[in-house]
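User
Here is a favour to ask of a fellow structure person. I am asking you to supply a protein in sequence and structure-token form. Please set it down just below, with no commentary around it:

Assistant
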Amino acid sequence: MFDILLTDCVMLGMVGLLAAVGGQVRKGWLYFGLAIGLGLLAKGPVVFLHLLPTAVLAKFWRADRHAPDKAWWLGLLAAIAVGAALALSWALPAAQAGGQEYGDAILWHQTADRTVGTKIHTRPFFWYLQFLPLLLFPCYSGRVYGRDCARVLPEIKVWRSARSGWFRYS
């Protein structure tokens, strides 16, 4: 997640999730759907790797610790539909106006070729272990931005673990 625009979209999605949990359901899911749509336009389906695990694992980070109800799942599906509609409202006309080759490039090859032909993750797994102390620093330092780690950890642990799990196997 090295793209600032993608980071902004993910943060908008997280703000939306927090608003939905906090009782502002329409506003929250609208923000979440907008974040998905803009993230799809900015970087493609990678935005789902950041937003969906956090929404699906809401039981573990919600304050009441209750499993999400039917309204939560319907809101999530509606937000995904809004995001997909937003992205497709640009992508389909652009693909049609650009012709067959351009349509294939933006709808398929842009993402598929990037994931199949990447040389980014060519280092062995143990090479990444040297960064583990840096990643865990907020937790073992005892304080995170002036707040106790015990209060912050449930909020950030789910997002980090889900995100790292996806990247480990991609």
Q: What stands out?
A: The beta strands are 143-144, 147-148. The chain has a mean pLDDT of 78. Residues 41 and 90 are 8 Å apart (CA to CA). The two ends are 13 Å apart (CA to CA).
